[in-house]
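in:
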C-alpha cells in the first residue's frame, strides 16, 4: 500500500499521537510506503482565500470557478499543490482526528476545503449520459479511505441507541459527502472511545484494534453506500420510486445497514 496519513491533533503526546506512531510503525514493518500530513505540526492554513488561486481581488471571488481555473492553469498555492501530489501518489487515505463537537477539528475541515477542489477531486462528467461522476465515481475512484477517530464518550453512547447518535451518522458528511462523493471507497470507521480515561490496558486494546484494521485495509469490505449513477437515484437525484421502502435520513443512502462502529 501507499498510505497518506492525514492527522489532526495539536499534541503529539496525546492518545491520538501515540496511535498515529503505532500505525506508522506497523506500516513500515510490513513494507508499506507512507507519507504524513500532520496538520498542526505543518501549521496548515485552513482558510480558503483568493490568494490560493492567484485570483484578482478586483473581481468577484467565485470559489469553485476560481479554484478550478487555478488548478487547470497551474496557479494553485504551493501548499495545496503539495497535498494534492501526496493524495495522487497514495492508494489509501487514513484520516485521523479527535471527535470535537460531533465533527472534525476546524484545521482538518480546512484541509478538505482547500485541497478537494473542482478539477482535482471532482468535476468529471459521464460523456454518454451527461451526469456528473460523483458518489462512487469520480477523480479519486480506486482509492480507499479509513477514518480513525478518538472520542471522550463511551462506545455505546456513539451507537444506534446512544445519546450522542450513531457514529456513522455523525461521520456522514465526511464519509459520504466528501470521500464517497469524490469516488473513494470508504471503509467502516475505527472508533477509539473513552479517550480521556485511557489506561495501559485500554491503550493496548486500542493499539491491537488499530493494527488489525491497518493489516486488513486492502481487503475490508467498504461501507455499502449507494452509487449515484446505477439506478438508485432518478434524474433529480432523489431515491428512485422502486426504493419507497428505504428508510429516511443517512440510512437511506446505504444498500444495506453498515456494520456497528463500537467494539
Amino acid at each position: 500500500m501507499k498510505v497518506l496519513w492525514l492527522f489532526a491533533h495539536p499534541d503529539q503526546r496525546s492518545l491520538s499521537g501515540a496511535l498515529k506512531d503505532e500505525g506508522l510503525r506497523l506500516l513500515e514493518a510490513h513494507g508499506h510506503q507512507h507519507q504524513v500530513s500532520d496538520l498542526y505540526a505543518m501549521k496548515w492554513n485552513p482558510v480558503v482565500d483568493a490568494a490560493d488561486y492567484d485570483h484578482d481581488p478586483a473581481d468577484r471571488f467565485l470559489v469553485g470557478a476560481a479554484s478550478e481555473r487555478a488548478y487547470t492553469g497551474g496557479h494553485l498555492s504551493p501548499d495545496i499543490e503539495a497535498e494534492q501530489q501526496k493524495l495522487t501518489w497514495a492508494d489509501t487515505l487514513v484520516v485521523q482526528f479527535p471527535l470535537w463537537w460531533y465533527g472534525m477539528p476546524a484545521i482538518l475541515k480546512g484541509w478538505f476545503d482547500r485541497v478537494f477542489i473542482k478539477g482535482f477531486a471532482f468535476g468529471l462528467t459521464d460523456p454518454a449520459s451527461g451526469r456528473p461522476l460523483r458518489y462512487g465515481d469520480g477523480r479519486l475512484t480506486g482509492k480507499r479511505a479509513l477514518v480513525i477517530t478518538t472520542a471522550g464518550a463511551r462506545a455505546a453512547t456513539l451507537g444506534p441507541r446512544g445519546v450522542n447518535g450513531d457514529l456513522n451518522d455523525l461521520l456522514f458528511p465526511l464519509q459520504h459527502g466528501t470521500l464517497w462523493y469524490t469516488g473513494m471507497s470508504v471503509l467502516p470507521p475505527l472508533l477509539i472511545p473513552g479517550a480521556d480515561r485511557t489506561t495501559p490496558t485500554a491503550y493496548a486494546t486500542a493499539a491491537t484494534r488499530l493494527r488489525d484494521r491497518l493489516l486488513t485495509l486492502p481487503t475490508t469490505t467498504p461501507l455499502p453506500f449507494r452509487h449515484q449513477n446505477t439506478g438508485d437515484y432518478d434524474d433529480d437525484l432523489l431515491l428512485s420510486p422502486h426504493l419507497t421502502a428505504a428508510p429516511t435520513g443517512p440510512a437511506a443512502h446505504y444498500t444495506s445497514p453498515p456494520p456497528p462502529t463500537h467494539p
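note: The first strand starts at residue 2 and ends at 7.
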